[in-house]
From TrEMBL:
<dbReference type="GO" id="GO:0003677">
    <property type="term" value="F:DNA binding"/>
</dbReference>
<protein>
    <submittedName>
        <fullName>LysR family transcriptional regulator</fullName>
    </submittedName>
</protein>
<dbReference type="GO" id="GO:0032993">
    <property type="term" value="C:protein-DNA complex"/>
</dbReference>
<keyword id="KW-0238">DNA-binding</keyword>
<keyword id="KW-0804">Transcription</keyword>
<keyword id="KW-0805">Transcription regulation</keyword>
<feature type="domain" description="HTH lysR-type">
    <location>
        <begin position="2"/>
        <end position="59"/>
    </location>
</feature>
<dbReference type="InterPro" id="IPR036388">
    <property type="entry name" value="WH-like_DNA-bd_sf"/>
</dbReference>
<dbReference type="Pfam" id="PF00126">
    <property type="entry name" value="HTH_1"/>
</dbReference>
<comment type="similarity">
    <text>Belongs to the LysR transcriptional regulatory family.</text>
</comment>
<dbReference type="InterPro" id="IPR005119">
    <property type="entry name" value="LysR_subst-bd"/>
</dbReference>
<dbReference type="GO" id="GO:0003700">
    <property type="term" value="F:DNA-binding transcription factor activity"/>
</dbReference>
<dbReference type="InterPro" id="IPR036390">
    <property type="entry name" value="WH_DNA-bd_sf"/>
</dbReference>
<dbReference type="InterPro" id="IPR000847">
    <property type="entry name" value="LysR_HTH_N"/>
</dbReference>
<dbReference type="Pfam" id="PF03466">
    <property type="entry name" value="LysR_substrate"/>
</dbReference>
Length: 295
């Protein structure tokens, strides 16, 4: 492995075309510089300089070394700045996880856009998955942060930051008995009807939240079909198979053959969003995300 100081010295000799002038440039004596050039030639087993009456010139091998040395020195010069930038969170990569239903909310693309505008040199890696997998990914440092519909379980060393509360609404086929009019629908009025829900395995937090709201209203929903994704449940609703309770943001994705109604209940029907992460002061990119969340 060639010493970077030797490469710097060789570059100076080539650019000055004179060992004496190169020694002055490097603030050193000529004999040590001559020995450096000789040691490079011995190390590489190649003649690097032709001695001329009034100086030196690089041989073909010397010119090749000169070009490679410029690249290496430029890279070496950039290393401290890059390390500082990564330490300060203005370069590198941030890994962000989210559940399917969170990904449909407008806050997430807005957050990513604001982060990109502020830290354009940081690449963003996104992962959509179930909440359990996302929590495991944060614990194992595969994700820096995850956005879920519930806080992280206690005892895992994770911090949960409440981001927002999103209202839950009713999604009905347009020919449903409750679809007409502009009135709110009381949650208990849904008891006689068939439900289509986002599959619990895929959306455990939202599924459990919806069931809890129904139980608090005094009934257990009659679930006749589950959909693999929240958006795919809309196809089933539009087909008239059943109604569903969904986050309000879903209505921006589908309104054909579906009517959305506000829910009325003694306890507000909401689907919260939490940011789950390890409290790590040295993770500057994560801290930038957290700062944007709290603006």
């Amino acid at each position: 492995m060639i010493d970077i100081h030797k490469l710097k010295a060789f570059v100076a000799v080539v650019e000055e075309s004179n060992i004496s002038r190169a020694a002055v440039r490097l603030n050193m004596q000529q004999p040590p510089l001559t020995r450096i050039v000789k040691s490079l030639e011995d190390e590489l087993e190649a003649k690097l300089l032709n001695r001329l009456p009034r100086g030196v010139e690089a041989t073909e091998a010397g010119k090749a070394l000169y070009q490679e040395a410029l690249t290496i020195l430029a890279h070496a010069q950039a290393i401290p700045k890059r390390v500082q930038n990564i330490s300060q969170g203005i370069e590198g990569q941030i890994n962000i996880g989210f559940t399917n239903s969170v990904g449909l909310h407008s806050f997430l693309p807005a957050l990513l856009r604001n982060f990109r505008e502020a830290f354009s040199a940081v690449s963003i890696q996104l992962e959509e998955d179930g909440s359990s997998s996302l929590i495991d990914a944060v614990i194992n440092d595969k994700n820096d942060i995850a956005f879920l519909r519930k806080p992280a379980p206690i005892g895992l060393g994770l911090t949960s930051l409440h981001v927002l509360d999103e209202p839950l609404i009713v999604a009905l086929p347009n020919n449903h008995p409750l679809a007409s009019g502009h009135h709110q629908i009381h949650l208990l009025d849904l008891e006689p009807f068939d439900f289509v829900l986002y599959r619990r395995l895929a959306g455990q937090d939202l599924f459990d939240n919806i069931l809890a709201s129904c139980y608090q209203a005094g009934f257990s929903p009659k679930i006749i079909q589950e959909a693999p994704r929240l958006t795919s449940s809309l196809n089933l609703i539009a087909a008239g198979i059943g109604l569903s309770i969904v986050p309000e943001s879903i209505k921006d994705f589908w309104n054909k053959q579906i009517v959305y109604k506000a829910l009325k209940a003694d306890i507000p029907c909401i689907a919260p969003i939490y940011a789950v992460y390890k409290d790590n002061a040295s993770n500057a990119r994560l801290n930038h995300i957290l700062d944007l969340l709290q603006i």
